[in-house]
Design a protein that fits this description.
By secondary structure, this protein is α+β, with helices and mostly antiparallel strands. The protein contains eight helices and seven strands.
Amino acid sequence: MIIDIRNKKVTVIFHILVWIVLFSLPYLLLASKQEGLSRVIAGSWVPLCFYAILFYSNYFVLIDTYFFKKKIIIYIVINAIIIVGFVFLSSYLIDTYFRDSLPRRAEGEGPPKSLFAYLQIVSYLIALIFSIALKITERYLKTESERKKAENIKLEAELQHLKYQLQPHFFFNSLNNIYSMVDISPDEAKVTIHNLSKLMRYLLYETNTEKVPLQSEITFLEKYIELMKLRLSDNTVVHYEFENVDPSIKIAPLLFISLVENAFKHGVSSTKKGVINFCLKTEGNKVLFKTENYNFPKSNIDKSGSGIGLQNIKKRLELLYPERHEVRFEVKGDVFISELKIVIDG
């Protein structure tokens, strides 16, 4: 609302300045030639007053009432009546009040009065067309602004939905890990619950902004990876390397956690050895994240996670970084690889 008020004030000031210039210029030019004030009034100010009336009657009333509502014939008729009325009224005022201030011409000299009438009509039409053009431009800008606002609201709602979708998914996977530890190591389970509470605090309170420092995301990932490692046997080795990171970069929160969860979901086997690698780095304005894990496909009866993680990240990337991201998944031999590249603008 404050922005709208300011815009209106700027518009009003702009209109006032334009009319001040239009009314002042003829007087300043004629004053240098020692012309009388009456001639300025008759030749410039009277027509300008009529231009202003025609312009603002259209700008504030007629265009909205008739032109935009497709009542074109009524609109044309009303403006034709106004213009013709102004031509005759202008001629009457000049002949009645300012005739003596205008230069006298011998009979037969100069162009006929009809030509002046045509020129006046053309000048009124210019004021009318300018009013229509300005109104159409403002309407287009307003419509475009409302469309973008609606798109932003839709985008925010969709992103919020995806975020709410991600949090229960993350919480569900973490609780599964803790559940598996309760009987084996109750003390570690208590510590894990405490660590999980810190992660949830980050999820709930620190990710409510559009962007977060990349370092905050790295800290979150490190804590989550350490939490996941607690339930792993010696069969699985986890490495992560989050170095060569530009601390000034900010990024949308929770973009990498789905890839990390997916690596732990499909890269761990209770009977086979496996390795999981995570790497995050920055190159200029690019953020690069890569995961590698042995590919141990889950059976159909395994319900650990619903498979929404990778779909979630693809959708969020399309909304947050359109045409500024690349995400790739492939299997090389027994290794599943995911690569994510995001171009940070500004």
